[in-house]
Design a protein that fits this description.
The two termini are 39 Å apart. 51% of the residues lie in helices and 14% in strands. By secondary structure, the chain is α+β, with helices and mostly antiparallel strands. Helix 12 runs parallel beside helix 15. 43% of the residues are buried.
């Protein structure tokens, strides 16, 4: 009998899935998306860290990244045959192969670019009369017999150099080659001979048999020692006069190293191993630093010396490159952790809300099972089983999608994150449900937020969270996101804790306006306002959990949007500080002036809205600091943006900037720079503008706008300065912290018309001229002028994979935060949807019209929506205001770009990311209420009000 009953009963899980397929599908989709985001986050971090490490190594100068193992020439105490054997190809190849295999992981070399041979380290003077002598100083050349020349170069003319059989230390004639650049600069032709002297002053004739062209000029073979590829004109350090001479390298035939042993040019034997970064990952950075340190001065060096000889040394700048990458990673990591913790907290709360919604929908069903003898263990087990059947495949699929879409990164952090999502969902629903049914209840008490009183335990818990939030925010403001010892989770969780406290405070405050509004609403004739207010006060949709989800999501979206906006603003400001305007035309030298024809032509190009000619003279010596004027010059106008302090001693030299006051003021206003007081530079009387060609005496006093440090040094009285533009006195009439023409922090701005030499050295342009036409117009006046564009300078800040990857993560955080906020609104409204439908059905039987029903639901949803939107706006703004002093966006915005302004970059409130999600919350709440009212009006009251329905 029992077997027949068991066979006739349907399985519980299958029955539940068939009964509510929509709920199971929605839960699976939510888990899939959340598991995908959770698994993709650590993989995305690993991916951009790995790509950043590879990028930094691959783009670094080969002279720094290449690992070179070198040792001096074999000792003179050894037999000549042994010394020569150690510099021949067979021995060099054997040692090179052994060293390549001995490189410790994760350091790997690019085997195709490995080079070895013998080179001279002391340049030798070449006395041939046909070699160029710029300042009557003969060139100095180095010589190298390096392997792989034919594999890394093509023959441009002549023939490949060859080594005669039996080249020894006593040989006095060898063949060599030079690159095309060396041949062009040093006037070398095929067949030319160069003499290299031995230690005994005997000549070794080097015949140039060929001129070669590098296959990959920027590759490590040619760039590890740039002189291999290109000669260089360098100053003579032994001369007391500024004279220069040429230096370059002659490529000897392979296997001719023994001949260099007879010279006094200090030959060394070397092996160069360019790193291969293709297999490196982000976590390999710390291991790579340790390995390089061991090779340079540790156990690794001992192993190298056992292979290459006891005098071998390892030299490389790869460790510096990896350490710079690690510093950038450590600086970006805490900022990314803020986004990760924010979105993770939002996702966790939304999943808990989903469990609460499911538990509320099945409360009566499970209460019936409990009243009929069902045990908590049995009910919890069934709920766990039916939840796991839906959740585990969804989380596994989310993990699979993360692995497929984010193709790099370790798998186990993503697997742990996806497993955490599955565990939270599988445990949250059974635990929440079983806790509600520990004691069977006949009828649940009505939820009423207006009359609710928080318990003492809740008060203690809220105070504890308040202390944690205050501590986290204080720590973040004091020491910033980078703690020096990795990511501090408490500090990174500060935005989450701020949102949590705001949610708890708003839940406590929320009943107060409802109580105040309930009394006047009760005295009105219409029932819609009173009913909507009463429903809003008794609804669980405005509880702590939905509000917490909304505030977390909105605060995270606002924080992420502010990070993105701050990065963009910092890059725009850095580009403007570097160029000075939308475009800039200047001479290659500091003293080169712009012809009047060039200024007129460029100013008239299409797209140029305004032009400001400027004369800039750098390194002008300032007078000694004025006694008793340490406070500097201060004025009470809006132009005085700087403050003069006690740093006058730091302004010993400054840049003199001569401007046209009117055009420069327009340019400053166009680019958002501090207002420039053009009227103060309109000199009159003895300091009036000079006619062209007129000389003035040093007694002339010119009004000047100075930087704070220069103003502090000059004081209030006129001070004499000597410049290439004339000798005069200046009197500071105002200060400003920034000037468009120069990037120096010490400057002095005067009216260019009052200078003896007025010709501009720089032309600043406002507008968007065509780059090609602008450069063509400048090139018509010769190749001695340079064009800089603000747009091109701005583009330099977006090439680093680590920065681009972190930026994409924050964009995803903004989108995910907005999406979870809307989902939280939807879940909170769905939780009370059955009650609202029943209410409308009952009120329709009492004469409520369809339009009144729509207004009732809209008014009911309005308080919760406004509370969430207003609280989200305030929480997002407060989070940014509180945390901005401790968050520096330099690593994300400007790090890794040479010459960029690396000043602090603080968070800035982005109105779009702050307002759009909040407006979306209100719009979605209104839309859901309208759709629900429309749907309820299509169904009859009998359908909603069935006999025995407890709703």
């Amino acid at each position: 009998m029992s077997n027949d009953k068991r066979a006739a009963s349907a399985p519980w899980i299958r029955t539940r899935l068939r009964t509510a397929p929509g709920a199971a599908t929605a839960l699976a989709v939510l888990v899939l998306v959340t598991a995908f985001l959770a698994a993709a986050f650590p993989r995305a971090v690993d991916a951009y860290e790995s790509k950043g490490l590879r990028h930094d190594i691959a783009t670094a100068d080969a002279g720094h990244s290449t690992v070179e193992i070198a040792r001096p020439q074999p000792g003179l105490e050894l037999p000549q045959e042994q010394r020569e054997a150690e510099t021949r190809n067979p021995e060099l190849t054997r040692v090179g192969t052994a060293l390549l295999k001995a490189l410790p992981a994760p350091l790997r070399a690019d085997a195709s670019s490995v080079a070895y041979g013998v080179r001279t380290t002391k340049p030798s003077v070449a006395t041939e009369p046909w070699l160029p002598r710029p300042d009557a100083v003969p060139p100095k050349l180095t010589y190298v017999a390096q392997s792989g020349l034919k594999d890394h170069a093509t023959l441009a003319s002549g023939a490949w150099p060859t080594a005669p059989d039996g080249v020894t230390e006593d040989s006095r004639a060898v063949q060599g080659a030079v690159t095309e650049e060396t041949a062009a600069e040093l006037k070398v032709k095929v067949g030319a001979t160069i003499t290299l002297l031995t230690a005994a002053q005997e000549p070794i004739t080097v015949t140039i048999t060929g001129i070669v062209a590098p296959r990959d000029p920027n590759g490590s073979y040619w760039s590890a020692d740039p002189l291999l590829r290109s000669p260089s004109l360098v100053p003579d350090p032994s001369s007391s006069f500024p004279v220069n001479f040429w230096t370059g390298t002659v490529l000897l035939a392979e296997d001719t190293g023994p001949v260099l042993l007879s010279t006094a040019a200090e030959p060394v034997v070397f092996w160069r191993f360019p790193p291969d970064p293709t297999g490196l990952t982000g976590p390999d950075g710390s291991r790579l630093t340790s390995v390089i340190a061991s090779l340079e001065s540790g156990p690794g060096l001992l192993k190298v010396r056992r292979i290459a000889g006891g005098t071998a040394v390892v030299g490389t700048g790869l460790g510096t490159i990896v350490e710079a990458n690690a510093r950038m990673r450590d600086a970006i990591g805490p900022v990314i952790a803020v986004a990760g913790l924010g979105i993770g907290s939002v996702a966790a709360v939304v999943l808990l809300m989903t469990g609460a919604l499911i538990a509320a929908r099945r409360r009566d069903e499970l209460a019936l099972m409990r009243s009929r003898g069902g045990s908590l263990r049995g009910i919890g087990g069934r709920l766990l089983a039916e939840t796991a059947v839906t959740v585990l495949p969804a989380s596994a699929l989310g993990l699979l999608l993360a692995v497929l879409l984010v193709d790099e990164g370790r798998w186990w952090p993503g697997a742990l994150a996806a497993a955490g999502v599955a565990l939270l969902v599988c445990v949250a629903l059974p635990v929440r449900t079983t806790l509600q049914h520990i004691r069977p209840t006949l009828h649940g008490a009505r939820e009423d937020m207006v009359s609710a009183r928080p318990s003492r335990r809740r008060t203690v818990a809220e105070l504890t969270l308040l202390v944690l939030a205050v501590g986290a925010v204080t720590a973040l403001r004091r020491r910033g996101t980078s703690t020096g010892g990795g990511t501090d989770l408490l500090v990174s969780a500060a935005p989450v804790l701020v949102a949590l406290i705001a949610a708890l405070v708003l839940v406590r405050i929320y009943p107060l306006p409802l109580r105040l509004a309930a009394r006047p609403m009760a005295r009105l004739r219409g029932a819609i306002g009173f009913l909507s207010l009463a429903r809003a006060g008794r609804s669980s949709a405005g509880g702590a959990l939905p509000l917490l989800a909304l505030l977390l999501a909105l605060a995270t979206a606002a924080f992420g949007g502010s990070v993105i906006a701050g990065i963009g603003d910092a890059r725009d400001d850095a580009a403007l500080a570097s160029v000075g305007a939308d475009a800039r035309v200047s001479g290659m030298g500091d003293r080169a002036t712009l012809p009047d024809e060039l200024v007129r032509t460029v100013s008239g190009l299409d797209g140029v809205r305004d032009a400001a000619p400027v004369r800039v003279e750098y390194s002008v010596t300032m007078p000694e600091a004025a006694a008793g004027d340490g406070a500097g010059t201060r004025t009470d106008t809006a132009a005085d943006t700087g403050t003069a302090g006690d740093d006058a001693g730091d302004a010993a030299t400054a840049a003199l900037v001569g401007v046209e006051p009117a055009s420069y003021a327009r340019l400053a206003r166009t680019h958002g720079l501090p207002a420039f007081p053009a009227a103060r530079l309109r000199a009159t009387g003895p300091s009036a503008p000079l006619p062209e060609g007129t000389e003035a005496g040093p007694e002339r006093v010119l009004p000047a706008i100075a930087s704070p440090a220069v103003a502090a040094r000059l004081g209030k009285e006129p001070r004499a300065v000597r410049t290439l533009s004339g000798d005069f006195q200046v009197q500071v009439v105002g200060t400003t912290a920034h000037v468009a023409a120069v990037s120096s922090t010490n400057f002095l701005i005067v009216n260019a018309a009052s200078l003896e030499q007025k010709a501009p050295t720089t032309l600043l342009l406002a507008g968007a001229p065509d780059p090609g036409k602008l450069r063509a117009a400048v090139d018509e006046n010769g190749k001695k002028f340079v064009v800089q564009l603000r747009s091109e300078e701005r583009a330099r800040y977006v090439n680093t994979p680590m920065q681009a990857g972190a930026e994409r993560i924050y964009l995803a955080a903004v989108a995910a935060g907005a999406g979870y906020a809307l989902l939280a609104v939807l879940l909170s409204l769905l939780q009370t949807a059955p009650e609202r439908k029943t209410l409308l059905a009952r009120l329709r039987t009492m004469g409520l019209t369809t339009a009144q029903g729509r207004r009732l639901l809209a008014f009911e949803a309005t308080p919760q929506a406004l509370l969430a939107a207003g609280g989200g706006l305030f929480t997002g703004w407060a989070t940014i205001a509180l945390l901005s002093p401790g968050v520096d966006l330099v690593p994300l915005a400007l790090a890794g770009v040479a010459g960029s302004d690396a000043g602090p970059v603080a968070l800035r409130t982005d109105l779009w990311s702050l307002g759009l999600p909040a407006a979306g919350v209100v719009a979605l709440a209104a839309a859901v209420a309208g759709v629900q009212a429309w749907w309820a009006s299509r169904r009859g009251s009998i359908t909603e009000l069935r006999a025995g329905d407890s709703r």
